[in-house]
Give the backbone structure.
Amino acid sequence: MPWKNQGGGPWGSGPKGPWGSGPQSSGPRPPDLEDLLRKGQDRLQSLLPGGFVSGMGIALVLAVALVIWGLSGFFRVQSEELGVVLRFGKHVRTVQPGLNYHLPYPIETVLLPKALRVSTLSVGMSILEDTGRRGRTIRDVPEESLMLTGDENIVDVDFTVLWRIKPDGVGNFLFNIQNPEGTVKAVAESVMREVVGRANIQPILTGARTTTETQVQELMQKTLDGYSAGVLIQQVQLQKVDPPAQVIDAFRDVQAAQADAQRLQNEAQTYTNRVVPDARGRAAQILQVAEGYREQAIAEAKGQSARFLKVYDEYKKAPDVTRQRIYLETMERILGGAEKLVYDGGQGAGASQGVVPYLPLNELTPRRQPPAPSGQPQQSGSTR
Protein backbone atom coordinates (compact mmCIF):
# COMPACT_ATOMS: atom_id res chain seq x y z
CA MET A 1 0.00 0.00 0.00
CA PRO A 2 1.57 3.26 -0.97
CA TRP A 3 2.58 5.73 1.82
CA LYS A 4 0.35 8.48 0.59
CA ASN A 5 -2.60 6.19 1.07
CA GLN A 6 -1.55 5.22 4.58
CA GLY A 7 -2.16 8.58 6.20
CA GLY A 8 1.06 10.20 5.23
CA GLY A 9 3.49 7.29 5.71
CA PRO A 10 5.71 6.56 8.70
CA TRP A 11 6.57 10.28 9.33
CA GLY A 12 2.98 11.16 10.15
CA SER A 13 0.20 12.80 8.30
CA GLY A 14 0.70 15.51 5.81
CA PRO A 15 3.20 16.07 3.02
CA LYS A 16 6.37 15.22 4.93
CA GLY A 17 9.71 13.83 3.90
CA PRO A 18 12.47 11.98 5.65
CA TRP A 19 14.21 15.32 6.75
CA GLY A 20 11.27 16.94 8.46
CA SER A 21 8.05 18.64 7.68
CA GLY A 22 7.50 20.18 4.28
CA PRO A 23 6.27 23.63 3.54
CA GLN A 24 3.60 24.88 5.86
CA SER A 25 0.64 26.87 4.79
CA SER A 26 0.53 28.90 8.01
CA GLY A 27 3.19 31.02 9.84
CA PRO A 28 5.67 33.69 8.60
CA ARG A 29 7.40 33.14 5.31
CA PRO A 30 10.95 34.29 4.42
CA PRO A 31 11.20 37.36 2.11
CA ASP A 32 11.19 36.61 -1.57
CA LEU A 33 14.38 37.90 -3.26
CA GLU A 34 12.80 38.24 -6.66
CA ASP A 35 10.01 40.30 -5.18
CA LEU A 36 12.49 42.68 -3.56
CA LEU A 37 14.43 43.14 -6.83
CA ARG A 38 11.21 43.80 -8.68
CA LYS A 39 10.15 46.49 -6.19
CA GLY A 40 13.57 48.17 -6.40
CA GLN A 41 13.35 48.32 -10.19
CA ASP A 42 9.93 49.90 -9.96
CA ARG A 43 11.19 52.63 -7.63
CA LEU A 44 14.22 53.43 -9.82
CA GLN A 45 12.01 53.59 -12.88
CA SER A 46 9.80 56.10 -11.12
CA LEU A 47 12.82 58.27 -10.29
CA LEU A 48 14.60 57.93 -13.65
CA PRO A 49 12.38 58.71 -16.63
CA GLY A 50 12.97 56.50 -19.58
CA GLY A 51 13.52 53.33 -17.62
CA PHE A 52 16.22 51.96 -15.35
CA VAL A 53 18.15 50.29 -18.07
CA SER A 54 18.45 53.37 -20.26
CA GLY A 55 21.92 54.80 -20.93
CA MET A 56 21.08 58.27 -19.59
CA GLY A 57 19.91 56.88 -16.26
CA ILE A 58 23.05 54.85 -15.74
CA ALA A 59 25.21 57.85 -16.64
CA LEU A 60 23.32 60.08 -14.22
CA VAL A 61 23.75 57.61 -11.38
CA LEU A 62 27.46 57.29 -12.09
CA ALA A 63 27.87 61.08 -12.26
CA VAL A 64 26.13 61.60 -8.91
CA ALA A 65 28.26 58.86 -7.33
CA LEU A 66 31.42 60.38 -8.80
CA VAL A 67 30.54 63.85 -7.46
CA ILE A 68 29.87 62.47 -3.99
CA TRP A 69 33.12 60.51 -4.09
CA GLY A 70 35.05 63.60 -5.19
CA LEU A 71 33.54 65.82 -2.48
CA SER A 72 34.56 63.32 0.18
CA GLY A 73 38.17 64.52 -0.21
CA PHE A 74 37.56 67.85 1.57
CA PHE A 75 38.74 67.95 5.18
CA ARG A 76 39.40 70.57 7.86
CA VAL A 77 42.57 70.88 9.94
CA GLN A 78 42.08 72.46 13.38
CA SER A 79 44.33 75.18 14.86
CA GLU A 80 46.46 72.76 16.91
CA GLU A 81 46.77 70.16 14.14
CA LEU A 82 48.73 69.49 10.97
CA GLY A 83 47.34 67.39 8.15
CA VAL A 84 49.53 64.49 7.00
CA VAL A 85 48.33 63.28 3.59
CA LEU A 86 49.08 59.64 2.72
CA ARG A 87 48.86 58.30 -0.82
CA PHE A 88 48.38 54.54 -0.70
CA GLY A 89 49.93 54.64 2.77
CA LYS A 90 52.99 56.79 1.82
CA HIS A 91 53.51 60.29 3.24
CA VAL A 92 53.37 62.75 0.34
CA ARG A 93 52.76 66.17 1.95
CA THR A 94 51.84 68.11 5.10
CA VAL A 95 49.11 70.77 5.11
CA GLN A 96 48.51 73.67 7.48
CA PRO A 97 45.36 74.39 9.56
CA GLY A 98 42.29 75.29 7.55
CA LEU A 99 40.14 73.76 4.82
CA ASN A 100 42.14 71.43 2.56
CA TYR A 101 41.58 68.75 -0.05
CA HIS A 102 43.04 65.35 -0.81
CA LEU A 103 42.19 62.74 -3.39
CA PRO A 104 39.26 60.66 -2.14
CA TYR A 105 39.66 57.36 -0.38
CA PRO A 106 41.20 54.88 -1.11
CA ILE A 107 43.74 56.87 -3.14
CA GLU A 108 44.67 59.31 -0.36
CA THR A 109 43.93 59.47 3.34
CA VAL A 110 44.79 62.04 5.99
CA LEU A 111 46.07 61.88 9.59
CA LEU A 112 45.54 64.83 11.97
CA PRO A 113 48.15 64.80 14.77
CA LYS A 114 48.14 67.73 17.23
CA ALA A 115 51.53 68.93 16.07
CA LEU A 116 51.13 72.58 17.14
CA ARG A 117 50.21 71.86 20.76
CA VAL A 118 52.86 71.96 23.49
CA SER A 119 52.55 68.91 25.73
CA THR A 120 53.71 68.72 29.35
CA LEU A 121 55.31 65.59 30.75
CA SER A 122 56.02 65.09 34.47
CA VAL A 123 58.83 62.83 35.69
CA GLY A 124 59.20 61.90 39.36
CA MET A 125 55.70 63.03 40.27
CA SER A 126 52.14 62.21 39.32
CA ILE A 127 49.51 64.94 39.01
CA LEU A 128 46.03 63.71 39.92
CA GLU A 129 42.78 65.63 39.48
CA ASP A 130 41.06 66.10 42.84
CA THR A 131 37.37 66.36 42.03
CA GLY A 132 36.40 66.92 45.67
CA ARG A 133 38.60 69.98 46.15
CA ARG A 134 38.43 71.09 42.52
CA GLY A 135 42.19 71.11 42.16
CA ARG A 136 45.22 68.95 41.57
CA THR A 137 47.07 66.63 43.89
CA ILE A 138 50.76 65.94 43.33
CA ARG A 139 51.96 62.49 44.33
CA ASP A 140 55.65 61.66 44.46
CA VAL A 141 56.92 58.68 42.45
CA PRO A 142 60.16 57.57 44.17
CA GLU A 143 61.07 54.99 41.55
CA GLU A 144 61.37 57.84 39.03
CA SER A 145 62.67 60.68 41.20
CA LEU A 146 65.41 59.12 43.35
CA MET A 147 68.79 59.41 41.59
CA LEU A 148 72.44 58.83 42.48
CA THR A 149 74.89 61.74 42.15
CA GLY A 150 78.54 61.61 41.16
CA ASP A 151 79.73 61.85 44.78
CA GLU A 152 77.51 58.86 45.75
CA ASN A 153 74.67 60.80 47.34
CA ILE A 154 70.96 60.28 46.73
CA VAL A 155 68.88 63.20 45.52
CA ASP A 156 65.14 63.47 44.88
CA VAL A 157 64.52 65.20 41.53
CA ASP A 158 61.08 66.12 40.15
CA PHE A 159 60.97 67.87 36.78
CA THR A 160 58.69 68.56 33.84
CA VAL A 161 59.41 68.48 30.11
CA LEU A 162 57.66 70.71 27.57
CA TRP A 163 57.70 69.11 24.13
CA ARG A 164 55.92 69.26 20.81
CA ILE A 165 56.06 67.74 17.34
CA LYS A 166 58.56 69.23 14.91
CA PRO A 167 56.74 70.94 12.01
CA ASP A 168 59.12 69.29 9.54
CA GLY A 169 59.16 65.95 11.36
CA VAL A 170 55.48 64.99 11.53
CA GLY A 171 56.07 61.94 9.34
CA ASN A 172 58.86 60.71 11.59
CA PHE A 173 56.66 61.25 14.64
CA LEU A 174 53.81 59.19 13.16
CA PHE A 175 55.77 56.31 11.66
CA ASN A 176 59.07 55.98 13.59
CA ILE A 177 57.84 55.73 17.20
CA GLN A 178 54.89 53.73 18.46
CA ASN A 179 54.35 55.39 21.88
CA PRO A 180 55.56 59.02 21.66
CA GLU A 181 54.78 60.07 25.23
CA GLY A 182 56.32 56.93 26.71
CA THR A 183 59.42 57.37 24.55
CA VAL A 184 59.88 61.00 25.60
CA LYS A 185 59.42 60.11 29.27
CA ALA A 186 61.91 57.24 29.10
CA VAL A 187 64.49 59.46 27.39
CA ALA A 188 63.91 62.28 29.91
CA GLU A 189 64.40 60.01 32.93
CA SER A 190 67.49 58.36 31.43
CA VAL A 191 69.13 61.67 30.48
CA MET A 192 68.40 63.25 33.88
CA ARG A 193 69.99 60.28 35.64
CA GLU A 194 73.05 60.62 33.41
CA VAL A 195 73.45 64.37 34.05
CA VAL A 196 72.89 64.01 37.81
CA GLY A 197 75.28 61.05 37.92
CA ARG A 198 78.09 63.22 36.52
CA ALA A 199 77.65 66.06 39.05
CA ASN A 200 78.07 66.49 42.80
CA ILE A 201 75.11 67.02 45.07
CA GLN A 202 75.97 70.52 46.32
CA PRO A 203 75.90 72.30 42.92
CA ILE A 204 72.65 70.55 42.04
CA LEU A 205 71.01 71.70 45.28
CA THR A 206 72.26 75.29 45.09
CA GLY A 207 73.43 77.09 41.97
CA ALA A 208 73.53 74.60 39.10
CA ARG A 209 69.80 74.27 38.40
CA THR A 210 69.90 76.31 35.19
CA THR A 211 72.98 74.47 33.96
CA THR A 212 71.35 71.10 34.69
CA GLU A 213 68.18 72.06 32.82
CA THR A 214 70.18 73.18 29.78
CA GLN A 215 72.28 70.02 29.72
CA VAL A 216 69.24 67.75 30.01
CA GLN A 217 67.40 69.59 27.24
CA GLU A 218 70.34 69.43 24.84
CA LEU A 219 71.05 65.75 25.51
CA MET A 220 67.37 64.80 25.19
CA GLN A 221 67.12 66.57 21.85
CA LYS A 222 70.26 64.84 20.62
CA THR A 223 68.95 61.41 21.66
CA LEU A 224 65.51 61.90 20.10
CA ASP A 225 67.05 63.19 16.89
CA GLY A 226 69.11 60.01 16.80
CA TYR A 227 65.84 58.06 16.95
CA SER A 228 64.35 60.28 14.16
CA ALA A 229 61.39 60.75 16.50
CA GLY A 230 60.28 64.12 15.12
CA VAL A 231 60.01 65.56 18.65
CA LEU A 232 61.17 69.03 19.69
CA ILE A 233 62.10 69.58 23.37
CA GLN A 234 61.21 73.17 24.16
CA GLN A 235 62.11 73.37 27.86
CA VAL A 236 63.10 71.32 30.90
CA GLN A 237 62.02 72.69 34.29
CA LEU A 238 63.28 71.38 37.62
CA GLN A 239 60.36 71.44 40.05
CA LYS A 240 61.99 69.99 43.17
CA VAL A 241 65.59 69.06 43.93
CA ASP A 242 65.95 67.86 47.54
CA PRO A 243 67.88 65.26 49.46
CA PRO A 244 65.93 62.24 50.72
CA ALA A 245 63.39 62.95 53.44
CA GLN A 246 65.55 61.27 56.11
CA VAL A 247 68.37 63.85 55.83
CA ILE A 248 66.59 66.86 54.35
CA ASP A 249 66.79 68.92 57.59
CA ALA A 250 70.58 68.61 57.77
CA PHE A 251 70.95 69.55 54.12
CA ARG A 252 68.73 72.59 54.60
CA ASP A 253 70.96 73.75 57.46
CA VAL A 254 73.96 73.41 55.17
CA GLN A 255 72.19 75.36 52.46
CA ALA A 256 71.31 78.13 54.94
CA ALA A 257 74.95 78.36 56.06
CA GLN A 258 76.12 78.54 52.46
CA ALA A 259 73.56 81.23 51.74
CA ASP A 260 74.83 83.26 54.71
CA ALA A 261 78.40 82.82 53.51
CA GLN A 262 77.44 84.00 50.05
CA ARG A 263 75.61 86.98 51.53
CA LEU A 264 78.64 87.99 53.61
CA GLN A 265 80.86 87.67 50.57
CA ASN A 266 78.53 89.92 48.62
CA GLU A 267 78.53 92.48 51.42
CA ALA A 268 82.34 92.40 51.59
CA GLN A 269 82.54 92.82 47.84
CA THR A 270 80.16 95.76 48.05
CA TYR A 271 82.30 97.38 50.74
CA THR A 272 85.41 96.79 48.62
CA ASN A 273 83.75 98.35 45.61
CA ARG A 274 82.94 101.43 47.70
CA VAL A 275 86.22 101.86 49.60
CA VAL A 276 88.77 101.06 46.90
CA PRO A 277 87.59 103.76 44.45
CA ASP A 278 87.56 106.28 47.32
CA ALA A 279 91.12 105.37 48.30
CA ARG A 280 92.22 105.53 44.70
CA GLY A 281 90.66 108.99 44.38
CA ARG A 282 92.43 110.25 47.49
CA ALA A 283 95.73 108.80 46.29
CA ALA A 284 95.29 110.53 42.95
CA GLN A 285 94.51 113.78 44.76
CA ILE A 286 97.66 113.51 46.90
CA LEU A 287 99.74 112.81 43.81
CA GLN A 288 98.28 115.83 42.08
CA VAL A 289 99.02 118.06 45.12
CA ALA A 290 102.56 116.72 45.30
CA GLU A 291 103.02 117.29 41.61
CA GLY A 292 101.79 120.88 41.98
CA TYR A 293 104.10 121.48 44.95
CA ARG A 294 107.02 120.07 42.99
CA GLU A 295 106.29 122.34 40.06
CA GLN A 296 105.92 125.31 42.41
CA ALA A 297 109.19 124.56 44.23
CA ILE A 298 111.04 124.16 40.95
CA ALA A 299 109.59 127.42 39.64
CA GLU A 300 110.51 129.31 42.84
CA ALA A 301 114.01 127.85 42.81
CA LYS A 302 114.49 128.88 39.22
CA GLY A 303 113.19 132.38 40.02
CA GLN A 304 115.48 132.78 43.03
CA SER A 305 118.47 131.53 41.10
CA ALA A 306 117.68 133.94 38.28
CA ARG A 307 117.32 136.78 40.81
CA PHE A 308 120.57 135.85 42.48
CA LEU A 309 122.33 135.82 39.14
CA LYS A 310 120.99 139.29 38.33
CA VAL A 311 122.05 140.60 41.75
CA TYR A 312 125.44 139.04 41.28
CA ASP A 313 125.81 140.74 37.94
CA GLU A 314 125.05 144.15 39.56
CA TYR A 315 127.34 143.32 42.43
CA LYS A 316 130.24 142.82 40.05
CA LYS A 317 129.60 146.24 38.56
CA ALA A 318 129.44 148.11 41.93
CA PRO A 319 130.39 145.93 44.88
CA ASP A 320 130.21 148.62 47.61
CA VAL A 321 126.82 149.96 46.59
CA THR A 322 125.38 146.51 46.18
CA ARG A 323 126.78 145.39 49.54
CA GLN A 324 125.26 148.42 51.28
CA ARG A 325 121.91 147.85 49.57
CA ILE A 326 121.83 144.18 50.57
CA TYR A 327 122.66 145.16 54.16
CA LEU A 328 119.85 147.70 54.34
CA GLU A 329 117.28 145.39 52.80
CA THR A 330 118.27 142.63 55.18
CA MET A 331 118.02 144.86 58.24
CA GLU A 332 114.69 146.16 57.08
CA ARG A 333 113.36 142.65 56.72
CA ILE A 334 114.64 141.58 60.13
CA LEU A 335 113.81 144.69 62.20
CA GLY A 336 110.61 145.60 60.46
CA GLY A 337 108.37 143.69 62.87
CA ALA A 338 110.46 143.89 66.11
CA GLU A 339 110.49 146.35 69.02
CA LYS A 340 113.39 148.74 68.60
CA LEU A 341 115.65 150.51 71.11
CA VAL A 342 118.25 152.94 69.88
CA TYR A 343 121.45 153.08 71.97
CA ASP A 344 124.13 155.64 71.48
CA GLY A 345 127.39 154.41 72.81
CA GLY A 346 129.19 157.74 72.26
CA GLN A 347 130.66 160.21 74.92
CA GLY A 348 129.23 163.63 75.74
CA ALA A 349 126.19 165.15 77.24
CA GLY A 350 123.67 162.59 78.30
CA ALA A 351 126.21 159.82 78.00
CA SER A 352 125.42 158.67 81.53
CA GLN A 353 122.07 157.41 80.40
CA GLY A 354 123.24 155.93 77.07
CA VAL A 355 119.72 155.73 75.69
CA VAL A 356 118.25 157.94 73.05
CA PRO A 357 114.52 158.72 73.60
CA TYR A 358 112.38 156.87 71.02
CA LEU A 359 109.01 158.14 69.91
CA PRO A 360 106.59 155.21 69.14
CA LEU A 361 104.66 156.83 66.35
CA ASN A 362 102.63 153.71 65.55
CA GLU A 363 101.26 153.56 69.08
CA LEU A 364 100.41 157.26 69.10
CA THR A 365 98.36 157.00 65.94
CA PRO A 366 94.62 156.90 66.92
CA ARG A 367 93.00 153.64 66.04
CA ARG A 368 89.53 153.38 64.62
CA GLN A 369 87.06 152.34 67.32
CA PRO A 370 84.30 149.84 66.51
CA PRO A 371 80.79 151.32 66.44
CA ALA A 372 79.11 151.38 69.87
CA PRO A 373 75.74 149.74 70.46
CA SER A 374 72.66 151.89 70.03
CA GLY A 375 71.77 153.94 73.09
CA GLN A 376 75.35 154.25 74.38
CA PRO A 377 77.60 157.30 73.78
CA GLN A 378 80.74 156.77 71.72
CA GLN A 379 84.07 157.33 73.40
CA SER A 380 86.63 159.36 71.58
CA GLY A 381 90.14 158.06 71.44
CA SER A 382 92.73 159.84 73.59
CA THR A 383 96.33 160.45 72.62
CA ARG A 384 99.37 160.92 74.72
